[in-house]
Specification:
Layout (H helix, E strand, L loop, with lengths): L11 E5 L8 H13 L15 E2 L5 H18 L3 E11 L5 E4 L13 E8 L6 E6 L7 E6 L4 E6 L3 E4 L8 E10 L2
Length: about 180
Amino acid sequence: MFFKQGLTEHSVYTSDLPKIIPINYDKININILENYYYNNCQNSSEFSYLNKYFFLEDDKNITWINDYIRDYFRLDYKKTLGLIHKAGIVQQSNESLNYHHHIDENNLKNSPDISAIVTTKIGKNPSYVEFEYKSDRVKNGKYRVPLKNKQVILFNSGLRHCFTKNNNSEALINLSLKLQLLD
């Protein structure tokens, strides 16, 4: 008999947020857009992906989304996730966001394990988050997930990903949550 010991695993999970949770997406969008308009970005360097990630004020609607993710993950995977960072991402028409990951290579202990993207506003034309991965036989693998309103996309924080071009006339708005495994 062989015993399997997984060494690394990269996964992408998707789930629609339940309608029963009274989330006010307009309030989340206002929170994100206020910080966008005041250029309250997490890093002002033109070389950092964080110049497109904007600080957010605490908000019960974001807390409810985080609670749903935490409870869902604990129920299905028997592991608890704790929120360590939250940010808003705004892509104007024809903008994209280059490949990046959420691991701070200079501070691995405080880096997230799991990242979440929640689309709070999208136009009619499709946009995607695209993941780049490698495995034994796949060297330049890519996997795309279409962005949908009120959908959560969870993935390993070390997965390189990008946001494709926003082909809509209005802004595309996403909420980014970075989470650590607590147990």
